[in-house]
Amino acid sequence: MEVTQSYARPSQAGIDDSGALRMGLTAEASRPGVQLTAQILDCRSYARVMLALYNVVSSDLRSKQKDHSGYQKWVEERYLEELDTTMGAKLRALPGLQEKQTRLKGRLKNLATEIRPLEGTIQGREFYNKRYEYFQWLRKHDRDAWWVLDPVVSVHRDCVVFEVFSLDESSYGRVTVPWEKLDVLGEVRYGTTNVDYSSALADEMRRIRSYRPAFLSVAAEGVSIATGAGERVEKKIDLPPTWVRGFLQVQSAAVYPAIEVQFSPETIAEVLAALQSAREKTGPRSLRFQLTPGECPTITIEPWGTVIKERVHKFTGDTATEIRLWGRRRLLAFADLLPHADSVTARFLGTGMPSYWSITLDGHRFDIGVSGWTKNDWSSAARFDVLAATGQASDGDIAKASQELEKRLKLVPEDITDLSTETATAALQRLCATGMAMYDLADSCYRWRQLLPFPAPVSEEDQRSKLAARIVQTGGVSFLKDTDEDEAFSTLTARTDDTTFRFRAWVRGGETRREAKFAVTLDLDNDGRVRFASCTCSFFKREKLRKGPCAHILAAVALASQQLLGAKAAKKTEASADAFDFTDKTFVFTGALTKFTREQAEGIVVQRGGKASGSVSKNTHYLVAGDKAGSKLTKAQELKIPVMTEDEFLALMGGSIA
Fold first, then answer.
1. What CA–CA distance (Å, rounded) separates 541 from 547?
2. Is the peptide bond before 284 cis (omega within 30 degrees of 0)?
3. Helix H or strand E segment including 613
4. 597-622 b/e with 16+ CB inside 10 Å = b?
5. What pLDDT digit, counting tens, does each position of 242-291 carry?
6. Do the Cβ atoms of 260 and 345 come closer than 8 Å?
7. Which residue blocks in 265-306 are alpha helix, DSSP H?
8. pTM given for the model
9. If 166 and its partner were Cys, which of 138, 171, 173, 349 is the partner (CB 3.0–4.6 Å)?
10. Which distant-in-sequence residues (6+ apart) come within 8 Å of 533 by Cβ?
């Protein structure tokens, strides 16, 4: 899909009369007003991290078809040498053909002279104004056709964040400038917008010097943009429809458990220098990290077998492990930062899985998240969003989370006091899915960040997600109780503790009962995030989570929140001698429930030994009615079945559903 972005003028930098370098990042004109003007402290480090960001946004390491034109020309020349003298006649005709070519070139030149004034007409002010009016109309009447894609800048109360994707969408880059590194001048309007980050601006940033003051300005410079063609830049972009999903997967993968390793900048610089000095012709083409507790990590560069050892930092993990990464040349984006870096921290999700790298320079921070390999872009293959939060959140919960986050700009789930931590996490993750929020790995919090002026539509499910939904709908997921023993799960090391719950389930491979069953193991933390996932199917054995979870894990995750709530409720029941006995009691929930979702309540009832039904009958023991309860309430009253309010049902839980 081709869209157009409007800017009042190109982003630019230049030296003013006082000798200061002023950099103006022009915000996309139709976005909400964002304003910031500040002098940059430690501006040389700022320039370095921003140039590394430009390396990410302009990179494309996908395999390209080789140019064989030179070889083909050589083959043609050898072929002509072997032709007989019959070609002489054609060679004699060559001068006449060349004369005809000259006449045609003259005619084309005359036509170009006629075309040039016409081009000037369509590039005039009236043409640009009409085109701008069209895109304003498109934004109002057909938002699906009006999307924007360019580097994103978010002005927060404590920092300014720049985010980009590489051209091949396999690398995510981010620069964080803390507020203490900015001497703010004038009014500040917090928010998010797209900015124009051109190669010309990157060239100007290379001119930044520590002895010359540097100023940063982010502004739309007038939303009307009715100043003539020369003062506005409009860029056409082929927009990937999964752009927002790419941001979501980056953030969701960031909260997945990872191994954190500290490196000295010299070690990583040595690794990248080795990659730059040679080109591999055979596989494997990976970086192999050997991590042993209490010892300095070693890095093996394959296929050459070059071993580089970390000299300063020791691995602080509890278990020895080996991690292999592919698509390593994407790390060259921050090679120029390493001679000046204060620290380098890596987070590994596992072999062949995404990794995150953080480099700090004088307080400025550069982060890059790379997918499992270059062809594995963030948006199409990964499904880490389903592992980030399994809880259920109603539309009302999402609205509360949205209002609170927009007001505070930055928070953790516990800050939303009206919601349980699990529900708040699910609601915040939903906001991330629609491009209205982001998870900040550096501060372990959620930030208000509108990628678009409107909530983005949730991307369509892939085939694995659709299969998982059908498995759930046909009752293909059966959870085991803690007391149940099964050899299929016995080989897995328990990872449960006071803050983690383990769930085991048999999941059918498809919709029919004849399908084979697979053993799925999940560990969920208190916030409902998946901390560990495993399946006995062939897809998981072959790929692990490198291409996202299998359909069986997705099916188990879809019901895991109910099991988690039930586990919490059961734990709470054990601590209360006067708890209500749910055994063999059938509950029906109806109406608009505002204090919990129907899935949450039904999960607790089942976990405590009761039954949850969707219809009222003589076998129903209790009906829980929310607002606007209809025919089910009438039938329950006719059958003289006890009716509870939401508050009365919560009283059975001790005042809380969590």
1. 12
2. yes
3. strand 611-613
4. bbbbbbbbbbbbebbbbeebeeebeb
5. 566 778 788 778 777 789 999 999 999 999 999 998 888 887 889 999 99
6. yes
7. 265-277
8. 0.65
9. 171
10. 387, 520, 521, 522, 523, 545, 549, 553, 557
